[in-house]
Write a structure and sequence with these properties.
binds flavin mononucleotide, about 10% strand, two-stranded antiparallel ribbon, globular, 12 strands, alpha/beta
Length: about 450
C-alpha cells in the first residue's frame, strides 16, 4: 500500500500559546476548554475528516500569565474517555507526564481508555516542560534532564510489560468446565530497575490493538534518543521544511541504529493552516490574526515559562536582557539559545520579547491548492508523515476538511475511508505480539533497553 498522509487535531478551546485574545471571539464559548461537548464536537468533525487522532496536550502547572486554555482545562484521559463513547474510528491520544505519574496507575488508566475506545488509545509521553510543576508533587526541584529521560524510558518499558500481563487468550470463560481464567496466561512483571520496583500483574487485558500507541514530544538530544527507543508516533515542531526534514531524518536514523523499523515511527509536526479562497486573502488573514492576538504583556508573562515561571516584569523593559541561563537547565534548554542570542546581540528585554514573538506565518497558509501543494511537498520530501493540526476557530477546521482534504484525496495522498477501527491500524503500525506468547513461539515486536543509549 502506498504511503498516506496522517492528520491529528489538537484543540485549543479558548486559546493556546500565542492565541492571546482568541477567547474574545464571539464564536468561542467562554467555557470551551472545560466543556465536554466542545471536545466531542471537535472530535466528530475530525473523524468526519478521517483524521487519525484527536490529540490532547497537557501540563500541570499554571500561573496567571498562562494562555487561557491552560488556565482552566480538563484532564486528558478523563476527557477522552467521554469522547470515546461518541466516536468510532479516530484515535484518542492523551498527554501524560512520566515524571509526575506512577507506572502502574497510568498504565491502567491508558489501558482503560484503550478498552473503552475499542483499541484507539495513545499516550503522548512527556517529561514535563514546566519545572515548577515539581512543587505540585512534593519535590522542591524538577528532576534534571538525565534523570527525567532515564525515568521516562523505564516508565514506558514497565507500562508495556504491565500491558502484556494477560496473553490474548487468557480468559476461556468456559461455563461448562468452570474455567474463567487460564492461569498459565497470566504473568507478573516483577520489575526491579533504577527508578521503579513493580510486581504486577496489571488487572486489565489487552485491547484489539494489543497495546496503546506510544507518542513522544521532545527535541533535545535526550528527547530524540527517547523517541528513537520508544516512540511509535512523534509530535514535533515544524518550523521550516529544512528543519522538519533534518529532524525527520535524524529521528529515523536513530531508530534504525537501534534495530527498529523506521517506518514504524509516524512523525507528525505541529501545524496551524490558514486557508482562504486565494493566497492573498489567506496571507492577509494570517497577518490580521497575529495582530488581533498580539498582546505584549501576555507575551512577556509567558516568556517566563521556559525559565521556571520566572517573572520578567520585575526587570526594566529597556534594560539588557538578564542572563538566566541557569533557570533553563531543568526545564526548556532551548531557552538558553535565546539568552545567548539576546546577550550576543545586545538586546533589551523588550527587543528580546519582540524577537521571540515576532510574526512567523505558518508554512501552511494559502488557497486550498497552495496548502495542499505545500503539504504534498513536505510529505514527499520526507519532512513529515503528517501534521498534528490546530485551528483557531471551528470554521477553520471545517474549511480545511471541506477544501484541502478532497484535493489530497484526489491526488491519492490521503485516505478516502478509514483502513481500521484501531489507532494502530490507521497509522499502519503492527500489533505488538504479547511478550509471553512470543517467548513461547512467535517473535515479539519489543526489545526492552536497559538504558537510554545515545544514537
Ligand atoms: C510539539 C511539541 C508538543 C509538546 N507538548 C507538550 C505537552 O503537551 N505537555 C508537556 O508537558 N510538554 C510538551 N512538550 C514538551 C516536551 O515534552 C519537552 O518537555 C520539552 O520539549 C523539553 O524537552 P526537550 O528539551 O527534550 O525537547 C511538547 C514539545 C513539543 C516539541
Amino acid at each position: 500500500m502506498s504511503r498516506k498522509i496522517h492528520f491529528g487535531l489538537h484543540p485549543y478551546g479558548v486559546g493556546g500559546p500565542g492565541q492571546d485574545n482568541l477567547w474574545k471571539d464571539p464564536s468561542i464559548a467562554k467555557n470551551a476548554s472545560v466543556d465536554i461537548n466542545y471536545y466531542i464536537a471537535q472530535a466528530k468533525l475530525a473523524e468526519a475528516g478521517l483524521f487519525d487522532a484527536f490529540f490532547i496536550v497537557d501540563s500541570q502547572f499554571i500561573n496567571a500569565s498562562y494562555p487561557a486554555h491552560y488556565l482552566n482545562r480538563l484532564e486528558p484521559l478523563t476527557l477522552l474517555s467521554a469522547v470515546a463513547t461518541h466516536t468510532t474510528n479516530i484515535g484518542l491520544v492523551a498527554t501524560a507526564s512520566s515524571t509526575y505519574n506512577s507506572p502502574f496507575n497510568l498504565a491502567r488508566r491508558v489501558a482503560s481508555l484503550d478498552h473503552i475506545s475499542g483499541g484507539r488509545a495513545g499516550w503522548n509521553v512527556v517529561t514535563s516542560f514546566d519545572s515548577q510543576v515539581s512543587k505540585n508533587f512534593g519535590l522542591d526541584e524538577h528532576l534534571d534532564y538525565a534523570t527525567r529521560y532515564g525515568r521516562a524510558l523505564e516508565f514506558v518499558e514497565v507500562a508495556r510489560g504491565l500491558w502484556d500481563s494477560y496473553e490474548d487468550d487468557a480468559f476461556p470463560a468456559d461455563v461448562e468446565r468452570g474455567v474463567f481464567l487460564d492461569p498459565t496466561k497470566l504473568h507478573a512483571l516483577n520489575h526491579v530497575g533504577e527508578h521503579f520496583k513493580i510486581a504486577g500483574p496489571l488487572n486489565l487485558s489487552r485491547s484489539p490493538q494489543g497495546q496503546p500507541v506510544i507518542f513522544q514530544s521532545g527535541v533535545s538530544e535526550d528527547g530524540r534518543n527517547l523517541g528513537a527507543h520508544i516512540a511509535e508516533g512523534i509530535f514535533a515542531p515544524g518550523e521550516s521544511f529544512e528543519q522538519a526534514r533534518d529532524y525527520y531524518a535524524d529521528l529515523k536514523r536513530r531508530a534504525a541504529a537501534l534495530g527498529r523499523n523506521p517506518d514504524h515511527i509516524v512523525i507528525l509536526i505541529h501545524g496551524n493552516p490558514i486557508v482562504a479562497s486565494t493566497d492573498e486573502e489567506a496571507q492577509a488573514r494570517s497577518r490580521e490574526i497575529f495582530d488581533e492576538d498580539n498582546d505584549f504583556d501576555r507575551k512577556l508573562g509567558f516568556l517566563g515559562r521556559a525559565f521556571g515561571a520566572y517573572d520578567f516584569s520585575q526587570h526594566d523593559l529597556d534594560g539588557p536582557f538578564p542572563d538566566l541561563t541557569h533557570l533553563t537547565e531543568r526545564g526548556g534548554r532551548r531557552a538558553a539559545d535565546l539568552v545567548r542570542l539576546a546577550i550576543e546581540s545586545g538586546w533589551t528585554l523588550r527587543q528580546t520579547v519582540e524577537f521571540a514573538s515576532a510574526y512567523k506565518p505558518s508554512p501552511f497558509v494559502g488557497s486550498p491548492e497552495t496548502v495542499a501543494d505545500t503539504i504534498q511537498t513536505w510529505f514527499e520530501g520526507r519532512a513529515i508523515d503528517g501534521i498534528n493540526l490546530a485551528f483557531r476557530l471551528t470554521e477553520d477546521l471545517e474549511r480545511f476538511i471541506d477544501s484541502v482534504v478532497p484535493i489530497l484525496q484526489r491526488r491519492g495522498l490521503y485516505r478516502s475511508e478509514y483502513e481500521s477501527d484501531t489507532l494502530r491500524g490507521n497509522l499502519g503500525l503492527p500489533i505488538p505480539v504479547n511478550r509471553y506468547s512470543a517467548a513461547a513461539g512467535s517473535e515479539s515486536a519489543w526489545q526492552p533497553a536497559d538504558e537510554l543509549t545515545s544514537v
